[in-house]
Design a protein that fits this description.
The protein is of the alpha/beta class. The chain has a single domain, classed as 2-Layer Sandwich (Endonuclease, Chain A). 37% of the residues lie in helices and 24% in strands. The chain contains five helices and seven strands, in the order E-H-E-H-E-H-E-E-E-H-E-H. It has a seven-stranded mixed sheet, with helices on both faces. Helix 1 packs parallel to helix 2. It is globular. The protein starts with 8 loop residues before the first strand and ends with a helix.
Length: 147
Amino acid sequence: MCPTDVTNKILINGDYTQNIIWLLDRVVSDVSIMMFDWNWYKNDFACDISLINQSIIRAKRRGVKIRIISNAIEAKTYFLQNGIDVRKYSVRGVFHAKLFIFDQNKFVIGSHNMTMGAMSRNFEVSYLSNDNEAAKAFVTLFDSIWQ
C-alpha cells in the first residue's frame, strides 16, 4: 500500500518499490540518493528496478534536481546519459549506504539495493520517515560526501 501522507513506516520487500515510486512521482525540488549496488535492466522495462529508474528520469524531466552517489558503473552511465548527476564514492573502504532523501524532508533508509535480488529474493527492510531533523542530518551527511 502506498502512503497518502508520509509517516514513519517500515518497508518490507515489495512495499519498498511502490513507496519509492510514489515519492519520486511527487517530489518537488530535489532527490539525493546513496546506493551501494544499482543494476540497470535494459531488457526488462517492467521489473522493479526499471520502474524506479524510470521514475527518477521522469522526476529529472520535471525539473527535479537529482544527485546520486553509487558504486555502480553501469547505472552511472545510463543516468549520466539522461542528465542526472552521478558520482562514484571514492573514499577508502566500501561504500555500502542505501538512502533516498526527498525534498530534504523525507527519507528512506535501509537494506534495499537496486538489484532484482533485493526486490525479489532477499528479505530486505527499509524505513520511510518524514522526521525533518533526521532528514536534515542526512542531507548534511550527503552534502559532505558529495563534495
